[in-house]
Here is the input.
Amino acid sequence: PFDVLVVGGGPAGAAAAIYAARKGIRTGVVAERFGGQVLDTLGIENFISVKETEGPRLAAGLEEHVKSYDVDIMNLQRAGKLTAGDLIEVELESGAKLRSKAVILATGARWRDMGVPGEKEYRTKGVAYCPHCDGPLFKGKRVAVIGGGNSGVEAAIDLAGIVAHVTLFEFMDVLRADAVLVTKLKSLPNVTIVMEAQTTAVLGDGQKVTGLAYKDRKSGESHKLDLEGIFVQIGLVPNTEWLKGGPVDLTPRGEIIVDAKGQTSVAGVFAAGDVTTVPYKQIVIAMGEGAKASLGAFDHLIRSSVP
Ligand code: FAD
Here is the structure.
């Protein structure tokens, strides 16, 4: 069996694997796609100490760093089931069963998309999901924020301080964000709010986003708005479908509940990164959490009676 088995090969999983391997213990990583969300990212300007890099380059760096240690990497494998016990069992969808004294869950999350024409085509060419990451790229430009929940309204307030103008689109007839946020949003001079709007298409010139098409759900009329950026804020979905039904406790939103050491509700099972309840989903944060969960797992191992 493994001493530490990491499920997930994004920034959190890579950090966890390196910290475990450096303890000289038997370490494995199972990943559906080594690199994770970073592979889908173009410019990265907030990975501290690296002024500017690109997703695929950072992903290659993660892999190279992990491979410089004695880590058993099982790429292109999906975990399908976890069973608690003295030895924790992770069953892959291929049918293989892996056993480990400690497991670190780092399966990440994915942004819910609008599912409209043009969205995929213009992703990273104007369609963005992370205001902390891409906000500064739209300095002085016009952007839309899709979604009037807390994340959408927070994004709109954040972006209003950077860009020329923000238009926030909400599907329903009410903003679901906290009242203080809505009050703050409404006080900003360069923000317009469009209610009961259904976005229907992302418009572009072949190179980049030029506008957004939407339908007024009340009148049924179609409209177009010229702009340079669209931030989609309609939810971040944790990759925990495979964990539903236990034994690891999840929040109603599906995030894995962890304590300050990354420990989950199951002894020997730790979690890190975007898949957990830890707020603010970012690369540096995921790496730090991965390192922390790995040290938590090591702490668990040296105290455990399983030989
Ligand atoms: P992920 O990166 O999501 O990795 C999860 C890993 O688990 C992957 O290897 C995946 O294949 C694997 N996995 C999932 N399910 C299973 C399963 N059942 N079995 C086995 N493996 C599984 N952050 C920044 O800090 N700066 C940025 O500029 C930035 N830009 C971004 C741009 C885009 C377009 C996106 C989508 C995200 C961006 N982020 C950025 C966020 C950042 O990418 C994430 O916070 C970070 O990747 C989270 O790391 P993670 O390891 O927790 O999860």
The mean pLDDT is 97. DSSP finds six helices and 19 strands in the chain. Residues 7-13, 30-34, 36-38, 40-41, 44, 46, 78-79, 106-109, 111, 129-130, 133, 239, 242, 273-275, 281-284, 286 surround flavin-adenine dinucleotide (CB under 6 Å). The longest helix spans residues 283-303.
